[in-house]
Amino acid sequence: MMKSKKGRPRYSISQSPFYRLKSIHTLAKLLDVNVDRLSPNDPLFSMYREGEIVKTNGKIRPTETPVGALRIVHERILKLFKRIDIPDFVHSVKGKSYITNAAQHIGNAQTYCLDIEQFFRSTRRHHVFDFFRNYMRCASDVAGILASLCTVENYLPTGSPISTLLSYFIHKETFDTLNNIAGEQNITMTLYVDDLTFSSRSVPYGFRKRVQNIIRGRGLRYHKQRKFFQGSPREITGVIVHRSGLTVPKRRHLAAYNETVALWNAGSIDDREGHFKRALSRLSEGAQIEERMKRRKNALKAAKLQIFRAVST
């Protein structure tokens, strides 16, 4: 058994309280809910709020967010799964980020990236059931209840706190296989949610085809394939990777600049507060990567009183 940075025990998946779980009553205690609420017809299973997110390309992505008692159950499941050891190649976990993901590929000559298309929606209820039944070795009725609790309309919900980590475990064998074949060819692999990146001195065509076949064999689809050669700058999980370091993409510099301009031009306190928060958020995110973004963030914070004094007068 290992410990996390905060000293909490970390264990292998076979030591999880979900492993070989056979009793619905034990499951109810584990999730801290009344056993009667684990009946498929209970309203608990449908406690979702529907919404939508407008993506940067203008496309609208529907969201399903658990609320009330179901939200508490999802957070409990997440808490228990966070205690399981995660391989180093996974960066969509606490303590890591899209930045640490990109940093693993600094200095490598060739890079191959691809995303799994509609990853959460493509992770169906039968995938979740198979994971709990066959990999976690739960009883069939327990696996069925967990599969229903963790899915909405037969897929992983976009707005649930469990979907990111659970999607890794559900497809763990696939991701572990990809990492193993990458290691055999001295290729670095990282995973950030649905974003796979491979880099090395060479990422040959045959390797790329093998990756594609493994993903398709799991019943998943890939898209947004990108190939970079001979150390040219490349964007990985929203970060520009150079031979010797990382920088912020130009569009994110521009977005922060535009938000700052809108802040100064806003005519009311409420509008300025909104633009100030968004500008500070964009600059704070970039400050983790570039020193000049950090300077701009500090300058904005220092000018806060002046900004709001200008509109109040």
Structure commentary:
With 313 residues, the protein is α+β, with helices and mostly antiparallel strands. Among the domains are: 12-83 and 124-170, no CATH class; 250-312, no CATH class. The protein has 13 helices and eleven strands. It has helices spanning 24-31, 68-81, 98-103, 119-122, 125-135, 140-149, 163-170, 172-184, 205-217, 250-265, 269-287, 291-302, 304-312; strands at residues 2-3, 9-10, 48-54, 60-66, 110-116, 188-192, 195-200, 222-228, 234-236, 239-241, 246-247. The strands form four sheets. Strands 6-7-5-8 form a four-stranded antiparallel sheet. α10 (250-265) runs antiparallel to α11 (269-287) and α11 (269-287) packs antiparallel against α13. The longest helix is centred in the C-terminal third of the chain and has 19 residues, at 269-287. It is globular, with a radius of gyration of 22 Å.
Q: Indicate the radius of gyration in whole angstroms.
A: 22 Å
Query: What is the helix/strand order?
Result: EEHEEHHEHHHHHEEHEEEEHHHH
Q: How large is the count of helical segments? A: 13
Q: Which percent range fits the helix content?
A: 40-55%
Unreliable residue runs: none
Question: Which word captures the global form?
Answer: globular
Average pLDDT number = 91
Strand order of the largest sheet: 6-7-5-8
**Count of distinct strands:** 11
Describe the main β-sheet briefly. 4 strands, antiparallel
Proportion of strand residues: 15-25%
Q: From the helix content, strand content and strand pairing, which structural class follows?
A: alpha+beta
**Cα end-to-end separation:** 61 Å
